[in-house]
Amino acid sequence: MNFSKRLLNWYKVEHRDLPWRHTKNPYIIWLSEIILQQTQVKQGLPYFQKFVSRFPTVHDLADASEDEVLKLWQGLGYYSRARNLHFTAQYVSKNLNGDFPDNFKELKTLKGIGDYTAAAIASFAFEEPVAVVDGNVQRVLSRYLGIYTPINSTEGVKEFKTKAQKLLDSSNPSIYNQAIMEFGALHCKPKSPKCMFCVFQHDCTAFQQGIQDELPVKLKKTKVKKRYFNYLVLSDSEGNTIVKKRRGAGIWQGLYEFPLIESENPQEIPTSEEINEATGMPLARIEKIKIYNEEPVIHLLSHRKILSTFIEIEINGQLSDLKFSNKFEICKIKNLRQLAVPVLIQNFIESEFPIA
DNA sequence: AAGCCGGGGCC
DNA sequence: GGCCCAGGCTT
């Protein structure tokens, strides 16, 4: 029995029933694939349900504001996915009459769609015989074929792409592609792969040689760096505060946060002068300065360790009477939950301003 | 070719 | 604490 036959037999019995597997609608498939980039099914599933429900068609998504899309995306991370999702929805809605391209090459020209996602949509929705290559596929193939080339090296990416395309069952690209990824996710797992009852025992190089725990090989990632974020949480007599949308490069682009003083080292309570410099708030209006958390709140990202403090600043009179320097927006504290914010900020809001 | 970009789950 | 995840974009 060949590779595909064994794989599909396994898939028939073991696959999960997932909602995006019940459709050939390229919009729904695209939506699911963007959500699932670098994201496990368990984490992405509730977001998929929210998005399909709120945006049944690509036109609905195109007509929404970017702020609303980011708010629905909040907590899922890699927020460029949400911005690109919205951009591409508008492009497809307005320039392509709502119809997604039906082939790999054209799909790849859309923002946010790379090799993997183009192959997924082309094969799932249009049965184009192009192999998907994701982390699951790389792991399965590195073990099955005994490939030590690092999966994240330039050479490795090319090699796994070539091998994957050779193994692809061109008569059934949609099911085959889903099957090999499902096999990687459920059976040929990174740790404790289920080799003792595997349909590939007889031809898997790794199992035959007992090297499954050495594969795949991956180049080391860069070290986690520390950053110190000191947030200024202003409040006036009317229950207002000020926030700002993060712009330009860097993390959390497009999300809102409180006025931020980033420091090279752990920060003491900022002085009135520093608060004035960061926000434009006149010194005379600063009533009281207090720190919320004595110990820094630690927020871990894959490549950053953010140590943050939140500083409470009470203001004389009303914030709405003042002119702020750059692009701060006045917001009722009770309305903060309507904004798209990083999980770090969301956690703070929920703990300090619980719903009455 | 290497860095950057989140957050949750697992060991 | 390190690694993984239905990756893609930027430099």
From TrEMBL:
Residues 35-186 form the HhH-GPD domain. Its EC number is 3.2.2.31. InterPro entries: A/G_AdeGlyc_MutY, DNA_glycosylase, Endouclease-III_FeS-bd_BS, HhH-GPD_domain, HhH_base_excis_C, HhH_motif, MIG/MutY, MutY_C. GO terms for molecular function: purine-specific mismatch base pair DNA N-glycosylase activity. It comes from the Bacteria. Keywords: 4Fe-4S, DNA damage, DNA repair, Glycosidase, Hydrolase, Iron, Iron-sulfur, Metal-binding. Binds 1 [4Fe-4S] cluster. It catalyses: Hydrolyzes free adenine bases from 7,8-dihydro-8-oxoguanine:adenine mismatched double-stranded DNA, leaving an apurinic site. It is an enzyme of class 3 (hydrolase). Adenine glycosylase active on G-A mispairs. MutY also corrects error-prone DNA synthesis past GO lesions which are due to the oxidatively damaged form of guanine: 7,8-dihydro-8-oxoguanine (8-oxo-dGTP). This is Adenine DNA glycosylase. It comes from Psychroflexus salinarum. The gene is mutY.
